[in-house]
Design a protein that fits this description.
Helix content: 25-40%
CATH topology of the largest domain: Rossmann fold
CATH superfamily of the largest domain: Glycogen Phosphorylase B
CATH architecture of the largest domain: 3-Layer(aba) Sandwich
CATH class of the largest domain: Alpha Beta
Number of strands: 14
Largest sheet: 6 strands, parallel
Structural class: alpha/beta
Radius of gyration: 22 Å
Distance between the termini: 51 Å
Strand content: 15-25%
Strand order of the largest sheet: 3-2-1-4-5-6
Number of helices: 12
Number of domains: 2
Shape: globular
Order of helices and strands: HHEHEEHEHEEHEHEHEHEHEHEHEE
Length: 394
């Protein structure tokens, strides 16, 4: 089973096998549609079961929460099924407003196809931007009408009944909303997640008395989206001087790196709580919601924090803020400020010699944005020295 996000083998299979398969299945589907009744007209009275498919990153799952809110507002009594992937299903407890949550084993397409067929819907909305497996599953689904993206260079749109042009000149939430506009459903809700009622803060943490650092991005060439570790240490020293404790978060694959960051903080006399890979995503969400502030690289945790209305500062280097910035009135985006950065559209368009975009974000920039989110009263000054904007401060 090939599950892990960024798996190159799975992407190659999706491209080499997926494209001809999508074209073949799309052709067969169109012929069948000609024989059967057309599905060009949809009416509110004919939509009793709705399906939404999201098989990509957790950030996409967060954005999908906005579509679910819009669908629930338009069809308050309809049955809504959310089809997720085994790679992003850990975020399902944070989503509200659906009647069924179905996990598709993307690494096993036959099993996934049988599973999606066991949940017939009147309309199936596929939020996938590039995976051909989504288009294949949409074709195999028992759906009266399917809606999906035509993304330049991805050759995946031929199997959908209604096609939306995916655009790289707007935020992804607006691309998602266009999927609903295509079937005359008003779209405009913002992403919103909920903390499960059984998710408790880890012992020892007091609400509003700690700052969360999420230093570890995911996906293809994730190391290019990391902020230099010494700058996390410098920022941690400044936070500690204000009397706040530090919390480090991350996935199980981040445990070694997170432990290294915790050790560097400890050398400066800062005792942080390292929860990378040790708690569930629901508990992490509870921490984000209760934090004084969250500082995160541009990744799923940043989007989750924003959708929970937590005060979050998102650090974006190669990732385009215009395309993937956090969506919240309490969110702040800091980017590299260079025209050579912010080049990621779908997440894998790296140049041959990518610039070190994250190194162009200074501690001073982040600290300036973070100060208003912290208490005005100074706490323990601590003993570590940090470098901010080239000046040593103690």
């Amino acid at each position: 089973m090939l599950k892990k996000r960024g798996n190159n083998t799975l992407k190659k299979l999706d491209f080499t096998i997926g494209i001809p398969l999508v074209i073949a299945l799309g052709t067969i589907k169109r012929l069948v549609r000609l024989i059967q009744r057309p599905t060009e007209m949809l009416t509110d009275s004919g939509i009793e079961r709705l399906g939404v498919m999201v098989t990509t990153a957790i950030g996409d799952m967060v954005l999908t929460s906005a579509l679910i809110r819009d669908l629930r507002a338009a069809f308050p009594t309809s049955y809504i099924v959310l089809f997720a992937a085994d790679t992003n299903s850990i975020a399902l407890p944070l989503l509200d407003g659906v009647d069924a949550k179905v996990i598709l084993p993307i690494g096993n397409p036959i099993k996934a196809a049988l599973l999606i067929r066991s949940h017939p819907v009147d309309v199936l909305i596929d939020t996938g931007q590039w995976p051909r497996i989504n288009a294949v599953l949409s074709t195999m689904a028992r759906a009266g009408c399917t809606v999906g993206f035509r993304t330049p260079g991805q050759y995946r749109h031929t199997s959908y009944d209604r096609i939306v042009n995916h655009r790289s000149d707007r935020h992804e939430i607006d691309n998602f909303r266009a999927l609903l506009d295509c079937i005359d459903i008003a779209a405009g809700a913002d992403p919103m997640l909920v903390v499960p009622t059984d998710a408790e803060l880890p012992s020892g943490l007091q609400p509003r008395n700690f700052v969360v650092f999420h230093a570890w991005p995911s996906g293809t060439k994730s190391y290019l989206k990391e902020w230099p570790v010494e700058r996390w240490v410098a920022l941690g020293c400044l936070v500690a001087k204000r009397g706040f404790s530090l919390v480090l978060t991350g996935g199980s694959e981040d445990q070694e790196k997170s432990a290294g960051l915790a050790a560097l903080l400890a050398r400066e006399g800062i005792t942080g709580s390292d929860f990378a890979g040790r708690i569930s995503l629901s508990q992490t969400a509870a921490m984000l919601k209760a934090a004084r502030a969250v500082v995160s690289v541009n990744t799923g945790i940043m989007h989750i924090a924003a959708a929970l209305s937590a005060p979050v500062i998102g650090l974006s280097g190669p990732t385009s803020v215009r395309r993937w910035g956090p969506l919240s009135a309490s969110a702040i985006s800091i980017d590299a400020g260079s025209c050579s950065c912010g080049y990621l559209n779908l997440g894998f368009e790296y140049p041959d010699n990518p610039p070190d975009c994250m190194a162009r974000i200074s501690v001073e920039q982040v600290w300036t944005a973070l100060v208003p989110l912290l208490s005005a009263e100074s706490g323990n000054d601590g003993g570590c020295s940090t470098t901010v904007g080239g000046q040593a401060r103690t």
